[in-house]
Amino acid sequence: MENISLSAELGEIRYAIEGAHWIADSVAMGAVPDPERTHSAPVIISAILLLVENRLHQLGRVLRGEENPAHLLTSHNVTGGEYADREDVVLRPWDWSGASKPSPSETKETAQPRPVAGTEPTRPLEESSPVQPGTPGEQPPPTGEQG
Asked: CA nearest 48: which of 40, 36, 60?
């Protein structure tokens, strides 16, 4: 069974970020001879960063045990278990041979997409009946300090 080299995976992510950086620097210094490529650079950089973000999210899920490491396996990070570098972290795919695979409904992520910064809905104030001043149960206004 093939295993996944964490250092090779992180190295590939680093190369993608370096590529986006190189494109941005080339455009900033006017080193791109073709104007068409200069205009498409922001889209290319954005695509690279989106791929990196998604791969890091997936890697985080694998490291937390929420996703099978086999989903990370590609030609750039494959390593043999017994020949793996002793300094590397090797991720081993889950062995499904002895157990049944979980159904998609059991592994389905239930988290909703996060809202874009600044668009979060405001939380309503505590929904309790207001206490009238001078009545039993009156509480002083909050001071921001917790006791």
From this structure: 40
Q: What predicted TM-score, i.e. pTM, was given to this entire model?
A: 0.59
Residue type, 114: R
Q: How confident is the model at residue 78 (pLDDT cuts 50, 70, 90)?
A: confident
Cα–Cα distance measured from residue 68 to residue 92, given in angstroms and rounded to the nearest whole number: 9
Q: How many CB atoms lie within 10 A of CB 19?
A: 14
pLDDT, greater one: 39 or 86: 39
- Residues whose CB is less than 8 angstroms from the CB of residue 59 and which lie 6 or more positions away in sequence, other chains included: 9, 72
Q: For 117-135, b where at least 16 C-beta lie within 10 A, e where not — what string?
A: eeeeeeeeeeeeeeeeeee
Residue with tokens 């979980």: 102
